[in-house]
# Entry
Amino acid sequence: VSGTVRHVLAPSSVAVIGASEDLGKFGGRILHNLVKHRFAGRILPVNPNRATLLGLPGHPTIGAAPGPVDLAIVAVPAAQLLETVTQCAEAGVRACIVFTAQLGEFDAAGAALQEQVLGVARRHGMRIVGPNCMGMIAPSQALGLTSSPTLQHVDALRRGPVAFVSQSGALMGALFILGHDHGVGFSTMVSVGNQADLDLCDFLEGLIEDSATRVICLYIEAIQDGARFAALARRARNAGKRILAVKAGRTEAGSAMARSHTASLAGSYAGFEAMCRATGILLMDEPEGMILAAGVLSAAPPMGQGSIGMVVSSGGGGAVMADRLVAQGLPLAAWSDATHARLDAHFLPTHRNNPIDLGAHKGALGPHIFADAIAAVAEAEEVAAFIYVMTPQPLMPETLEAVIAAWKRTSKPTVFVLDTSRFAENVRERLLESGLPFVTRPDDAIRVLDALVRERAMAAEAAQPAAARPHRAGPLPAVTPGFLTEPEAKALLAAYGIRVTREHVVRDAEEAVAAAEIIGYPVVLKGVSRDVVHKSDLGLVHLLLGDAPAVRDAFAAVAAALAGIGAPAEAVVQEMVRGEAELILGARRDPVFGPMVLAGSGGVLVEVLRDVQLAPAPVSVAQAEAMLRRLRLAPLLDGVRGRPALDVAAAAEALARLSWLAADLGARLEDVEVNPLILRAAGQGVVAVDGRGTLAAATSGGAGA
Ligand code: ADP
Ligand code: MG
# Structure
């Protein structure tokens, strides 16, 4: 471990302020955990009233303890916090883990005290973890630095490559036990609390540099510095370290809960999701599944080319599981001739499906049948990930050995589902000792396989060339801040090479007719005003105008409607575009992660279907096309039921160009939208027929600036 957090993650001496022998006290549980798990560094109990604690010499004050002290544990009541932290700082302690709660997350007085504590630490160059945290569990250092009672129920902290950084303290203890019971070995788990000083990113950085860590799990309530977080995610990917994350705040309820936990605001979930995909973070839906997935992922390299091969001990369970995998879009392997040939020895042709049901073998039962079948599937060239579902069955220990042997031989990602409740404690013990992490819930098996497949897809995307500025994108025309009219927004789009309608702004009926004659009938006439968001709602959109009288009537109607809201008579006359489908393309600035682009099904269905894809800007044309192909409407793009295939390439090009506009606008971007972009048949291009946008005044700083 190196960097800012090294004295925290790998201390050579730990002082416990308020150390006690009493397991009912914070300082007691921490000291017991430290001693029980045989921390190899110096343990310095600080207690004014005790000469020895658990056989260790006690020190009356932190100042009296022999230095240097890398890390001090502070779990005193808030009233004594400032004094205690000051004593630590004056004694030259390098970092304090502050458990004390009811500070910044609680009320104004708590926030003020937190600031004072931070001030003292900064003046002395001492770092703070927390406050309002639960410490850490670092098996790689034999360090149980938490008050969590769970550690007293575990004989040895299982070491392994999985790390965990958490904005929730209680979750750390709970996930430690969950992982422990499923064979997941941890390097370090740390809870960051209010992040007054050291924050989640500091620990993420430290763990990327930590040689004992290969997979990093994050529980996030809010990200403070989006740019740094994204940069660290990319660095982790380049270093071959995998990151899994769960973020609260997916729904309004989740956000509210998260806010009351820590003193920071949750950013938008969709922006976070897009950033994760772009940087290779595996976003998971729940913490338990994340830890179990991390365990399985850490036991093998990423999934290679090929599909999923499954063997089950019971036909019924296997069929349901197979249905669920397929429904989730996870690829089940079709056996090759070579695999068929190997399976023929033990199964009738009608029973060599994927999954293979061991119960359906032919001939007499024998362990070699199971071992052969497992080897045939796990070793198959078409199989890139192997899953075995064990329900109560004959020959459990022998079958388990066959799976373990196949996992070791193939080093393919292997998902072992021990779906036996308490039926086979001997199998569980053997699994734990084998080093193959496992799951017990079928849901988790699906989660893990899904994570493996998503990871592979993200790696393939990352291998694509980065976004290059398209020809003729920019420079930005002069733009007035505030809400843009359709012609103003289209001027921005056109400057970035996006095809917009041919159009003219007009102020009276005769100008409108003159414009229509230049453009050619039929035309479209729309009212123009900075005060209108949805023009159709106010009767300001007139389509398919075939001649001069129609244009005059439309202008009169638009002028009257605008007068009704106190706006001057102004309209835009434009070509009438015909096409096959409508998309919405948009850009907005995420407050945490900066400029984002989105694509979705256009028209009124936008809100109903919520069929949108988001990505951090800029994106390459290939990435833009991938976004379009992830939409639920994607089949329409290729032409369904006799409809022609659409110009997806042109739509992707427009999206990529919009993403450069968004990136270049940076902090000035609030949002820019094309709704609709009309798609024509392949080769015939796309046209932005409507545009809107809101720009902030140019500022210095801010995300994406
Ligand atoms: P709004 O402000 O209500 O979104 P739009 O300019 O998008 O107004 O017009 C409403 C609808 O009219 C569009 O969704 C599109 O279907 C159609 N439309 C608008 N302009 C054109 C055009 N130039 N060519 C063809 N259809 C158009
Ligand atoms: Mg529109």
Remarks:
- The chain is about 40% helix and 20% strand.
